[in-house]
Specification:
- GO terms for molecular function: pyridoxal phosphate binding; transaminase activity.
- Belongs to the DegT/DnrJ/EryC1 family.
- Keywords: Aminotransferase, Pyridoxal phosphate, Transferase.
- The protein has 373 residues and is α/β, with parallel strands linked by helices.
- The protein folds into 2 domains: 234 residues, Type I PLP-dependent aspartate aminotransferase-like (Major domain) (Aspartate Aminotransferase, domain 2, 3-Layer(aba) Sandwich); 121 residues, Alpha-Beta Complex (Aspartate Aminotransferase, domain 1).
- The strands form 5 sheets. It has a 4-stranded mixed sheet, with helices on both faces. A 3-stranded parallel sheet has the order 4-3-5, covered by helices on one side.
- Helix 2 packs parallel to helix 7 and helix 9 crosses helix 11.
- The longest helix is centred in the first third of the chain and has 21 residues.
- Bound molecules: pyridoxal-5'-phosphate (PLP).
- The site of pyridoxal-5'-phosphate (PLP) has 15 residues, from helix 3 and helix 4.
Length: 373
């Protein structure tokens, strides 16, 4: 009897932890030994280093990416009842954050090739209630923010950078193009913590000051609430210290992701899959390597039988979800978004993914495709 090959998933941090264990535990120990567990030197140090990486003046560490979006919107002046233009093929938290502050998400359709916001459809979505535009740099490549601004004029841009650490586009680096930019350090992200974390970057000192208040109950002076609604949304010292370590390796990790993407392209380009397209002027960081096939569900079932568990990011467009039924969208309103949701799937992608697992994935996908065409 042959032993079944070990299964492969889209993401796994254990190889990284094995490699970096001593450094990570030393980072944890530095925090625990410092005598200060909340908003200390580690958060301050990380904020400085993360801002410098982006060439922006300010970074405010927060507790997760959803709250980073929420605080960023609030800081640029979005209030209950205001409309925020974004997309529906993103992680649900993009829209959850808008909803949580009482604002209303308005969804643009996306481009068939890059899966990014279709800027040509945005002008028709602008109303007197539109207060902000929230482009999502989906899967690791940037929306063309300069072109977006040609359409949206003086509306503030808040970037959702949760999937695009280190990516660059025509407008520069993700996180350095908007009035504010929100990051998540959820463990799977290109820069991932060992738990939850997030940050907002901004070029504006007053916006940064507001963000610092908003993450600290609305207080500037201790015990005195300056502004409501305030939040408790602080980045944890332990995660900040681990993130400092991992920020030092970010560019190297991105190069590893690009090498894996190149191998997938080489190994699968002559198949019936549609492989990711990179938009003009973009340097993709491959948070996810998303391919498409009209018989996606059959393909994923065949791969799962071979021990390869692939993922769909994301199976349901947000405008079709029950929780957002109050927005009044109907099936068919965003045709490209809806069609893509039925065809997309992600191949395994993380910096420590072995060549052997890359090769096994490519071979298994080719075998499965041979069975369905
Ligand atoms: C992960 C993600 C978020 C939410 O981040 P959390 O840290 O999980 O709250 C928001 N937007 C996008 C595009 C994401 O991928």
């Amino acid at each position: 009897m042959t032993t079944p090959a070990k299964s492969i998933g889209v993401w796994n941090y254990l190889a990284e932890y094995e490699r970096d264990r001593a450094e990570i535990l030393a980072a944890v120990d530095r925090v625990f030994s410092s005598g200060r567990l909340i908003l200390g030197e580690s958060v301050r140090g990380f904020e400085e280093e993360f801002a410098a990486y982006h060439g922006v003046d300010h970074c405010v560490g927060v507790d997760n990416g959803t709250n980073a979006i929420k605080l960023a919107l609030q800081a640029v002046g979005v209030r209950p009842g205001d409309e925020v233009i974004t997309v529906s093929n993103t992680a649900a938290p993009t829209a959850v954050a808008i909803d949580e502050i009482g604002a209303v998400p308005v969804f643009a359709d996306v481009c068939e090739d890059t899966y990014l916001m279709d800027i040509d459809t945005v002008e028709d979505l602008i109303t007197p209630r539109t207060k902000c535009v929230l482009p999502v740099h989906l899967y690791g490549q940037c929306v063309d923010v300069p072109r977006l601004r040609e359409v949206t004029g003086s509306l503030p841009v808040v970037e959702d950078c949760a999937q695009a650490h280190g990516a660059t586009g025509r407008g520069g680096r993700a996180g350095a193009m908007g009035e504010a930019a929100a990051f998540s350090f959820y463990p799977t992200k290109v820069l991932g913590a060992y738990g939850d974390g997030g940050a907002v970057t901004t070029p504006d000192g007053e916006t940064a000051r507001t963000l610092r208040r908003l993450r600290y109950y609305g207080m500037e002076e201790r015990y005195y609430v300056e502004e409501t609604p305030g939040h408790n949304s602080r980045l944890d010292e332990v995660q900040a210290e681990i993130l400092r370590l991992k920020l030092g390796r970010l560019d190297e990790d991105i190069r590893a992701r690009r090498r894996i993407a190149e191998r997938y392209h080489e190994g699968l380009r002559d198949t019936s899959l549609t492989l990711p397209a990179v938009g003009a002027g973009n340097e993709h960081v491959y948070y996810l390597f998303v391919a498409r096939h009209p018989q996606r569900d059959h393909l994923l079932k065949l791969l799962s039988d071979q021990g390869i568990q692939l993922n769909i990011s994301y199976p349901w467009p947000i405008h079709t979800m029950r929780g957002f039924g109050k927005l009044g969208y109907r099936a068919g309103d965003l045709p490209v978004t809806e069609r893509l949701a039925g065809e997309i799937f992600s191949l395994p992608m993380y910096a420590t993914l072995t060549r052997e697992d890359q090769d096994r994935t490519i071979a298994a996908v080719r075998d499965a495709l041979a069975l369905i065409v």
